[in-house]
Amino acid sequence: MATMFLVVIYLAFISLGIPDSLLGSAWPVIRPDIGASFGFAGILSMIVAGGTIVSSLASGRLVQRVGTGKITLISCCLTAGALLGFSMAPSMIWLIFLAVPLGLGGGAIDAALNHYVAENYKAHHMNWLHCFWGVGATLGPIIMSFYIAEHNSWRDGYSTVSMIQFTLAIVLLVTLPLWKRVAAIKETEGPNSENPQDQVGEQIQPAAISKASVLQIKGVKPTLIAFLFYCGVESTAGLWGASYLVGARNMTAETAAGWISLYYGGITIGRLITGFITMKVHNRVLIRCGQIIAIAGGGMLLLPLPQIFLVGLILIGIGLAPIYPGLLHETPARFGRENSAKLMGFQMAVAYTGSTFLPPLFGLLASQMTINLFPFIVLAFIVLMMLSTEQVNRILK
């Protein structure tokens, strides 16, 4: 039952990923339709991410009171309703209003399911959980590209995704009683044994540390910086990649959306493969390899050669694949299990801060200067992320 139920959790994470990639893929068509400025997508992204931060910080208390299953169901309904509203929005004001429940729903699902899987399933499931986020993020641009190409309508793309979300909400409603049953079974089985690779460096830090002094733990500050720039580069590439391909590389909107789906596809396939590799290779090695691949992809974006730069976009996705789940899973090994719950909340909040502010800042920069800065900014974010993680490795070696 627990294995079959895991499929439901994966489906829920697919629902989390689909909306994340829709706005960037559709923005070249949405912008002229509603008369928005170029950088307005950054404002919408900031509002969505802001709602995500709020709901993720509150999710721990909400899960204790309501339960993971109900939180996931309510959040799915919130995002479904917001996406349906997007499809009918007549103006920018409505998009701003609807971005709030979209962010609140997404953040609650993310934090609640990450916690549930960490508590009840083995380590490699964390990579596969985020792999299914990538499945959703890949499907989003594909769906949007189809409706732009075949119907010249971004609204139909949003309404279709909304129907998918409502369908998932029905599945979650039907399976709601299973959440407590599976958790009870897992509790009687005892805590999951971790891979030998996951034990390296465990309990490096002192035992429990007060919340006020969490930031004083060795290696925490550069780790938070790494989370900031990880989500910054992932969100910036997803939000502005299509606009860059249209504005700087002269692609059609539907073709650009298709290439953004391949970027998210790189993240998805990478995490699927990484889930198997983590059984043999330590997270820290995978994180470093992923960053090197992402840097190589960022360098390829700078090449003036036709088509070659598109491979760079896919390489960035593949390189990013193991980094986020790997950093999350390293938390107890690097800083002690007694401190991991507190640090997990800090890490996710800082990660969402990167999603909230860095893409809009690039949008402002691009609107004042040029969208051609896109590959330079993406590469800079990746390099800063890698420098931060390597600093942590030096501190905690």
From TrEMBL:
InterPro entries the UniProt entry points to: MFS, MFS_dom, MFS_trans_sf, MFS_Transporter
Name of the protein described by the UniProt record: MFS transporter
Record PROSITE patterns: MFS (PS50850)
Sequence ranges assigned to domain Major facilitator superfamily (MFS) profile in this UniProt record: 5-392
Membrane topology: Multi-pass membrane protein
Subcellular location field: Cell membrane
Keyword tags: Membrane, Transmembrane, Transmembrane helix, Transport
Segments traversing the membrane: 34-59, 71-89, 95-116, 128-149, 161-179, 224-244, 256-273, 285-302, 308-328, 349-367, 373-389
The keyword Membrane appears for this protein: yes
Highest taxon in the source lineage: Bacteria
One Pfam match: MFS_1
